[in-house]
Amino acid sequence: MVGSAHPDMDIKALKTSKPRTQNPEPKTPHQKPQTVFSVSLGCPKNLVDTEIMLGGLTNAGWEVTGTPAAADLLLVNTCGFIEPACKEAVDTILDLARVKADRPEVRLVVTGCLVQRYGPELIQDLPEVDLFIGVNDFPALAELLARPQAFGAAPLVHQAPPYAYVGVEARYPATPYHLAYLKIAEGCGHGCTFCLIPQIRGPLRSRPLNTLVQEAENLAAAGVKELICVAQDTTAYGRDVPGHPGIAALLREVAAIDGFRWIRLLYGHPARITPELLATMAANPRILPYLDIPIQHGHNEVLRRMGRGYGRQDILDTVRRIRTTLPGATLRTTVMVGFPGETEAHFQALCDLITEVGFHHLGVFLYSPEAGTPAAAWGPKVPRREARRRARLLKAIQAKIVKARLKALVGTVAEVLVEGVSPESDYLLTGRMTSQAPDIDGQVYITAGTGQVGEIQPVRLTRALPYDLLGEIVEAGEKA
Ligand code: SF4
Fold this sequence. Notes:
- This protein is an alpha/beta fold.
- It folds into 3 domains: 11-157, Rossmann fold, CATH 3.40.50.12160; 179-408, pyruvate-formate lyase- activating enzyme, CATH 3.80.30.20; 410-473, CATH 2.40.50.140.
- It is built from 12 helices and 20 strands.
- The strands form 4 sheets. Strands 1, 2, 3, 4, 5, 6 and 7 form a 7-stranded mixed beta sheet that branches. Strands 8-11-12-13-14-15 form a 6-stranded parallel beta sheet.
- It is globular.
- The structure holds iron/sulfur cluster (SF4).
- Residues 1-2, 188, 190-192, 195, 197-198, 232-233 line the site of iron/sulfur cluster (SF4).
């Protein structure tokens, strides 16, 4: 699902860690392995593609380095579905081009959505880049680089048909060992009027159930505790293959695998939250009562023009069904302000809906007119200044909701997945509750007690911050 610029993931320099892959090619004793430094931009789906590229390279004898200056290859996997993401991608590429400037023998390779969207133009605009690879060609990266003429006359490779991900991919982990994303499908068949993803990533392609179960088993065997299912629309899983099992069936299969403690679903579609999905989530405690359902707006007219396929009352009915079947479920959503033709009354309807539902987490984005989408040609345009004012107002409404929710948790004991030492202080550990997805939902700062990274431990919550909590690790079984 989209909002605007993917705050999902900041730029992540990949630390050297052990590949979750089979035995790489034996190296001849005198040959120093080639090294790759990589940056993965955009969403977790793109991060999985980065892991697949690095899995292929390490299988071919490459080594991953966390230092660009020590790399033979600089790899940028870009996001590019909206202008702010394109700008971030170009800035990152130019940053690494400066590293290459000092060492001309180093290669700079760019992959991902920016390449798929602007391929040929990029060759002129970014001459520093040695090779551009599209979103369907990236699995062949290692093979492409092994070709004698890898770098030369044809710096753009983006002709492959939509990549199907049918096999179990060798992946080099870009996440802490206790957490992994499972990409269950690629592409999207919705066609929302503001969105370029179907044009960049192609139609919906669900990965075969048995492949996903095999990949999940590999991840569980590698020690993963939290498995997060991702796709453009996870709730559309299987709908492109007649008779193919759906998301509920997949979750049941994955929940039967030993090892996972938490199974989380991101990027659902408000019109696809079926009774079967809710019943499956209610029946299995490992499947977290957490639903990410980007509603995008709250006024019927705007939702109709966005091509979302549901109305305001449908949203309220879906929320009511979720809260009936999964009491206490965590709800995350994403909305957009400034869509062409959005009036003050439309905006007020959105504010009222956000107040009425009281989502746990809310992403607010400014509409971004993207060339090639129907909505980009529509009017009347909402002035940027006005769109920003509306975003501020909506965030203020949500801040009050979050404050009350977090305050109500103080004094209770929650299960927290300990993730490591806080970047803010060596005296603080950080972790997340079941209601907090990585990178987007706030976290728990642990001020006392002994924590084990990758373990789920009871934490008494002692203080609420605007979007985070403070807490102390307590003995197992200790109640509020
Ligand atoms: S077309 Fe709609 S459902 Fe599909 S990725 Fe874009 S916003 Fe999401």
